[in-house]
Fold this sequence. Notes:
By secondary structure, the chain is α/β, with parallel strands linked by helices.
Amino acid sequence: MKLLMVEDDPEIVETVSLAFQIRWPEASLVFTHLGARAAELVDSENPDIVILDLGLPDVSGFDVLKEIRMFSMVPILILTVRAEETDVVKGLEWGADDYLVKPFRQLELLARVKALTRRKGSTGEEMPLVCGRLRFDPSTRQLLNGEREISLTSTEGQIFYHLMNNAGHIVTHSSLSEAVWGKEYEGATDSLKVYIRRLREKLEEDPSRPQLILAKSGIGYYLVRPS
């Protein structure tokens, strides 16, 4: 497993390096403090996951996220001091797979990294799912809606896989959270709302009036099974 960390704080880099050396020694870590190098390293190093800070010395972490998402669906975990809801929503809407606020607990960081990389590694064993005009291949996260091809991020793909695998039935917030992050954590329901909105924007003709992905208030979501 190879990890790319885009972070300019030497103490954070040292903390993360030590955590991996002790608890995940087989992992290979690549670091850069410059956002301008991030996309180049994603392309050349082909990491399994990117840990991205938003407060970089040269460019905004949001711009780095946007640039990476132009050519790669590598899982991206934002690690930042910015805890404002607007930043969290923006990060998830622009394609991040997870968002963790500093100061962080080492074990939680490792758990989230393992959840994202385990998800990436296991999807290839799953068979494509078909539901009406929709066909989803978990191994590539490619979704076909009729003839239209739609690319999903790792987290979007995981959520949609569970919705599609349970088409016609409600999937609870708790079940989706456990499938995506390994457990239900504080704020998971709000994060799911962002991902569901992104899926609707990619799938629905009118995202404000969804016909495919519906919500059961206070319970969860379900994918409408075609008649």
